[in-house]
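user: Please review this fold.
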Amino acid sequence: MQESEPLVDPVTGFAYPVSWVAACRDGEQLALAASGLGVLTASGKVLRRGFSTGTTAAAACKAAVLSLQGPVDTVMVRTPCGIDVHVPVRASWGRAEAAKYPGDYPGDATAGLTFIARAETRKDGIILEAGEGIGRFSRETPRHHAGEPAISPSALQEIMDAVAGGMEMTGTTGIALALAVPGGREAAEKTLNPRLGILGGISVLGTTGLVEPWDDHLAGSVRERVAAADRVVVTTGRLGLRYSRLHFPDHEVVLAGSRIGEALGAARGEVILSGLPGLVLKFLFPEILEGTGCLTVEDLTARPEFPARMEQAFSIARRKYPGTRIVILSREGEVLGDSG
């Protein structure tokens, strides 16, 4: 990399400040940040991104397909954010294992879990069966039916793309796959799944296919980015990041995750808090679900009382964070509410 070229995070599109790059003396670490598999912080430290449950599942499934023709010890998977990653696997005779890699995220409840995929040839097409350790929705939601496996659309697409790639490499026209996560039921008890009505195991997720290494170093970087911006949008997740850039192209958009309070506290200029309803409204109005009978804010969005509850959250925000504009976005990028 030439000195004149900025170092850009390919996952978020953030151009790292020159001072951050200068603080890192390790060329290999800078290369890791440039690849998107690491995150450069203000201190010069690089934190490793982990692999999502979706990426791990995709790796196991692809390896199972490839192993029908011989042993496999690593596979390449294209993540939803467009980065190719190489995942270690153990695979032979149509059975594959891949261990969930958390990177530098100490709070990953699924770290180390083994994803097991078994593949058999069929006439044509792809069949995927979710088995042991993968949670299922216990009730109807705006996006899922009761009994469906908890596999997000982006993770399912990642798995299907990986399997299709394995089929192309092996000349296979049809595959039946069974995916299981031994220990997933126990690991899920440490997550929000039981409260969300997802029972029996973990969720297979991944908007980008990678896991962010949130810790105190990265939180400090978030605060510095927010404080340095004249016009900033604080957002909570990948969809919020994507849509906020489209809605507010002349603002610096900063992904703060669950550290919304820290980010808003660091803001010095014009600030907008933008994102999906769940994290934003629960942060502003922790009691938003009380008396509604809903388990999640997403459930509440389909109820007639949602606009009134959202306005209550806006009122709280106006008192607690004067001057901060709140914009609530749907999963399709539409504006559900704007505190103006």
